[in-house]
Each structure stands twice: as structure tokens, then as C-alpha cells.
UniProtKB/TrEMBL annotation:
InterPro entries in alphabetical order: D-isomer_DH_NAD-bd, DpaA_N, NAD(P)-bd_dom_sf
Residue intervals of the Dipicolinate synthase subunit A N-terminal domain: 5-119
NCBIfam families (UniProt xref): PRK08306.1 (NF006162)
D-isomer specific 2-hydroxyacid dehydrogenase NAD-binding domain residues: 144-239
Protein name from the UniProt record: D-isomer specific 2-hydroxyacid dehydrogenase NAD-binding protein
Lineage of producing organism: Bacteria, Bacillati, Bacillota, Clostridia, Eubacteriales
GO molecular function: NAD binding
Pfam families in alphabetical order: 2-Hacid_dh_C, DpaA_N
Amino acid sequence: MGSTKFTIIGGDIRSIKLANLIALEGYKVNIYGFNNASFNTGLSESPDMNTAVGEADIVIGPLPCSNDNETINAPFHQGKIYINEVFQIMKKNQIFIAGRVSGKVQHLAQIYNVNTIDILEREDMAILNAIPTAEGAIQIAMEEMPITLHDSKCVILGFGRIGKILAKMLYALGADVYVEARKFSDIAWIKSYGYKPVLLNNIDSIIPQADAIFNTIPSIILDESKLKLVNKDCLIIDLASKPGGVDFDKAKGIGVKAIWALSLPGKVAPITAAKFIKETVFNIIGELGV
């Protein structure tokens, strides 16, 4: 049995699956922030936050950590869990791990001298997390489009982690894959994989032909001028974190269907997503020698 003690505080179903996966490996796991869950959590919830946090070596928060920079993202909790109260309980030798930890929360952690790690800033986690994100995007496209992805023209904006994995999956399905990139090195890689490269300043020429557009860039790329070029039967799926890459108000006004698909790993593959989180957490522990 491992000697490291864990507490999972707040989060969606991924967090509960994560707690159970860690417990299966023989570790002591507390959970807190799930008293309003309508499903079997598999573990007994700690009676209070002091017990839950105080007993742990590693405190694992949700992905994303917070939606308002003040409270833990805890959709299955009746009431609010304030981040500053969690940090007040934590001791110097404890570690707080969560996803998309904002600058404000990081600053709060510094005030309370809490060692905080943003798991989504790690390359290993970001790459693994892109797999269910890409699969979820394809699922949405299959459900929403009146045509097959096979032989359709799919445009991917951005050639980062999600863009790379999504392009591979769409290509395997027989789609005609166009990928936008800014770096000439990425353009070369896109060519080498058999996709069709498009420089950002040339996307106006391909947008009107697209059956589906997948955005991965967290900056408004599809503004009103670009959206006016989009075919009315085209589906836009925005996978980028806030502020996203699509002007949704303008898209609605023009009559273009656009879906902002956030947090797909937790929605389409929570068990797999939890497995990836666990692997990354254990990598962190191994690196730190905890």
C-alpha cells in the first residue's frame, strides 16, 4: 500500500473516477465536494473540509480549478468551497494539483505559501488530454452533420496538440483535411502527413469550401468577416478555451451553426480522462520524490 495520502476536492465525474483509480492502487483517498452527487461515488466523503484537506499529502482539485477565481469548481457540492479556505488549511509540505489554475489563484497560493501545480501546463497531460478532446469533436460532428466525415472537407485551425491528433483521426476517416498553421516548420509537417496546409492569411480561400471547421486557437479567428465566408451548411466546432476562437453572436446572426465544445474529456470519456490525470499525477509525484 502506498504511503502517500490523497484528497480529491471538487470537480466533475472525472474527479470521482480519479479518486477510485488511485484507491484501487492501495492509497488512502479522501473525497470532498460531492455531497450532492446523484450517483454512487464509490468512496465515503470526508465529514468536513478540515479533515479532508488536513489528512492529505496531495490535494487534487478539478479541471478547471475554478470558474470565478474564488471558489473550487464543484458542480456536485451543495454550497461553495472557497479556495482561500482550502489554502488556509494546507501546510507547507502539501501539494495542490489542479487544472487551468488562473494567475489570481496562483497569487493566492503564494500568499498562503501553497505549492501549486497546474496539471494542464504539463506537456504529458496536455497531449493525453487532446485524445478524448479530438474524439469528442468527431462525435459532435457525426451527430450534427447531415453528411459523413468521409470525403468531407474539414478545416482545422491550429496545429498544436489537439490539431495534430484531430487531423490524424479525421484523415483516417477519409476526410479531406486542411490544416491552418503559421510556422513554416508546421506547414512542412502538415505536408509530410498528407494533409493540405493553409497559412493563416490564406484561410479566406478555403473557408467557403469547408463542410466542417474545427478551431483550436484561443483567440478570435472566426470574426464577422470570416464568418460571412462560411457556407451556411458548414458546422463550426470551437475546441479552444476561453475566450475561444469564434464570435458566436455574429455566427448566430449570420445563420452559421457554431458549437463551443468545452471540457470534452470529462463529458465523452471520463474514465479515460481520469486515467490520464492519474498517470500525470503519479509522474509529478515521481519527479518530486513525494
